[in-house]
Amino acid sequence: MKITALRAHPVSVKLPATFWVGNSSFDTASVVVVEVETDQGLTGLATLHGRGMKIVCQMVDELQALIVGMDPLAHEAIWARVFDITTASPDPAHKPKSALFHADNRAQVMTALAGIDIGVWDIKGKAFNLPVWRLLGGDTRVLPAYVTGGYYRSDKPDGGLREEMQSYLELGYTGMKIKVGAASLADDIKRVAEVRATIGPDCQMMLDGNGAWSLNEAIAAIDAFTEFKPTWFEEPLHWYDSYRALGKLAGHTSIPIASGESELHAWNCRDLVDLGGVRIMQFDACRSGGVTEWLRVAAYCHLHGVRMSTHHEPHIHGHLAAAAPNGWNVETFPNAERDPIFANMYTNRAQITGGKLLLNDEPGFGFTIDWDFVAKYKVG
Ligand SMILES: [Mg+2]
After folding, report:
1. Looking at residues 348-352, what average pLDDT do you find?
2. Which residue has the higher pLDDT, 52 or 362?
3. DSSP per-residue letters across 351-367
4. Residues of the domain holding 165
5. Which of 71, 113, 280, 380 is the most buried (most CB within 10 A)?
6. What pairing do the DSSP bridges indicate for beta strands 142-148 and 327-332?
7. What percent of the chain has pLDDT over 70?
């Protein structure tokens, strides 16, 4: 079997409000859909939670010159060929001609690589007529799902947290994550207290700072939040000191530290474990490096007692968490106002019900795309 073509489709949907997190805001939901075509009628699909969508799509198109003709079952060889672009001495025979592939665009190379790699793993499942969770050795297609909500919303200045959390309880969720760090600590304490009071003592409550604080600020915050029994404290520190200072924070608090969604590769995830003291790893295969790199991260974390929790794209990540020995749970976005793409872009995919992700038995990742939706919301 040989790869014959790569295609990338940028999709973006305007949201009904601006959603704030600790260090930034967004008012669109975006995804890149990647197709990896083969000479045997199998097409692999990926959805990417990347940034710089236009460059990623151009890269996927130009990477055809390196990848077309390769065996899609050879995921390590394909991964190495693309990753080599980011080093000082790529094989001259596989050096892309385009000026796009320079050091400033490494993050986009890693996202384009993720698209190709995930597509290749989808092909692998389809070629062996197995869902990826089985191909990877898993024996269950059901795993815990939690909801990410509790954003600071431009259309709900008073929060609306109570009503929002109640809606998740009604859907059967027993784990809720909310955003912290975009308000004063006093206001955030009120938000956290309100959520704990609404969901009761037995539900999991995760707190996500999205890089909002310095070390001293984060210590003050987690000391104040601890009485509300958070399950984890996620990405609390500013991006520029998120390894060593994170280790100091981890040594200060009994609340487990979670991080990894912003990392580009397994080496940085190693440092999060070794220096940052993280106990929950959230490396995003759909943002950087794909399934192949996620499995490397998971193996290192397994050896160090760190659990894998996933970031976005549960229809893909769920297969990995279900199979990994240290796989734990998946992040989901059931609110269609926040994630209209997950709600509307698929004609088939894993389902979320009663606070669980239910993977299906279809080969590959088990999702299909509504191409009319892609055509309607395609950008660029
Ligand atoms: Mg996060």
Report:
1. 97
2. 362
3. EEETTEEE--SSSBT--
4. 134-370
5. 113
6. parallel
7. 100
